[in-house]
Amino acid sequence: MNPLLTHDGLPAFGAIRPEHVEPAVRAQLESNRKTLAAVLAGGERSFGAVVEPLERMHHRLNRTWSPVSHLNAVMNNEPLRSAYTSCLPLISEYQTELGQNETLYAAYQQIARHEGNRLDASQRKLIDNALRDFRLAGVALDEARKARFKELMQTLARLQAKFEENVLDCAAAWSKQVTDEAQLAGLPQAVIARARATAATRKLDGWVLTLDQPTYLAVLTHATDSGLRRELYEAWSTRASDRGPQAGRFDNTAMVEDILRARHEAATVLGFANYTEFSLATKMASSPREVREFLEELAAHCVPVARRELAELEAFAGARLEAWDIPYWAERLQRERFSISDDELRPYFPLPRVLEGMFAVASQLYGVSFRERSGVELWHGEARFFDLANAAGEPLGGFYLDPYARAQKRSGAWMDECIGRLELESVRELPVAYLVCNFLPPVAPRPALLTHDEVVTLFHEFGHGLHHLLTRARYPSIAGINGVPWDAVELPSQFMENYAWSEEVLPRISGHIDTGAALPPEMVRRLKGSRTFQAGMRAVRQLEFALFDLRLHSEYDPARGSRLPEILAEVRTRVAVVRHPEFNRFAHSFGHIFAGGYAAGYYSYKWAEVLAADAFAAFEEAGVFDGATARRFVDSILSRGGSRDAMEAFVEFRGRKPDIQPLLRQFGMAA
Ligand code: ZN
Fold first, then answer.
1. Whole-angstrom Cα distance, residue 126 to residue 365?
2. Residue range 275-317, pLDDT digits in tens
3. What pTM was estimated for this model as a whole?
4. Is residue 331 annotated as part of the catalytic site, yes or no?
5. Who contacts 287 (Cβ-Cβ below 8 Å, separation ≥6)?
6. Does domain 3-168 have CATH number 2.40.320.10?
7. Which of 289, 511, 514, 604 fits a 20 to 30 Å CA distance from 89?
């Protein structure tokens, strides 16, 4: 029996082999197609006869596919990767087929019309979401438009991939040989050692610096040689453009125009005025104007603070600072003010202590308990499994924790769905999550020691995990994080981060590895100071990106083209405080919006931060462990998943719409 087709209990990670992947996916897709055909042939158009079987079949496909994409991310190897990659087109073809299925669309429309009043609110929301997604996939278009829409989607996929490729190729084609060690002064030893090794591999003397993010950031932050900083800054900020050391070689200028033109046309084919409206159709924010006003209101508060911070930094440096000087001087000022290093912090945050404290926080807030389960099949000896139960001891679900960095594991940290919650008359399944991090592995006999950054990351992913596990939604497509708008999905995770900074919580999650002592108050003070350090300058940078992205996609006009340089210049005049040199071409490598999923959505970062800070403020007002507030938070937000409009849910919890003041306070910028 193929272990990927056994859908009871937890995945049999010990038994899954790369050769199981494609046959399982093909079999599951075939079975789903049969189910769909039978459902549609059946003729009955009711929630129970159409939607429930479809929810079950999505659930089964996810049970087959989730362990595969998980293993591909945490235990990558060549046979697995090729099995995984070979299934991607199969799945995307299946999804397109579903999204374009007119009979199915008509069935959902009929259910909405005839049964709408008898459905409960979450069932109606599920149907509304599905109808919206059908329309966004172009199902309601006439044949000519449908064909054009499909063509535009394919063009966009190709252009966006090429955009990213140009950025990577341009960076890979650049390097700098250094033969005078003095030029490397200030750089961390690890960076110097790597530059040495790169030179050796290329059979060159001295050191070779490459244009990757860690090297770039290390040079900008630590190199005392301002000439070296400027050189890397120029190479980095002109990637894939018409300027800089590789001007014109990998130029994305035309690509950007083509991408914006295709997006605009695709949006108008679907009946939207511009691509921003299309992007917002699935988000919590309701209109381009609302987003713009939101960003401008934040900017009005942050710009004066950022200007002050820059003036202060220049006074400290005793000079007018160029763009490539700022990270370097900021680092020095921060060290002088708050001097607190990761090496000082690590001994206070042994992983077992942090986990125990974090679970205690969740128990106190939500009345849940955690118990590690042994004997669970795992993909690696470092992974663990925890069961989650409610106050009455009834099981709610569980999660895997895979904490340490290792080869074959994707970088970063994330929460992903292993099993979604499903509750139908015939079947009931509890949610299961993966929490994956890349912490420094322990050195025996000591446990892993975390930096405070890593503690915050753990709380963040745990927040996503609680969103997935505390859901009460009965259908997988609206349970946990599913169906939650992109600009609201980071609310529970960023909310949870606040606990890792709380003075009430820090003593419970810290305990010195040798003495057991909690983090001393003086270190707490310095740690918290570093959180708000130059918050204004960091915020205006994000606002610059967000406003640029928003205006570019809202104001696109086929007759005039993108007007990218003009819009960027206008945005910078309003919100930027750093003086960007004329050659700066940051947009040419802005993959978030030109290659990734953040197009007309970059504002989501700030939007979710505001939601999270405002939600946490409700707890600060009542006490960070206030039981009534926590119950309301679970009832209105954590348990709801995508079963309810995100703004309505927020208003139900907070009694009003989101307010930016708590975020400003959090970063020491309140009026
Ligand atoms: Zn997140």
1. 29
2. 999 999 999 999 999 999 999 999 999 999 999 999 999 999 9
3. 0.93
4. no
5. 277, 280
6. no
7. 604
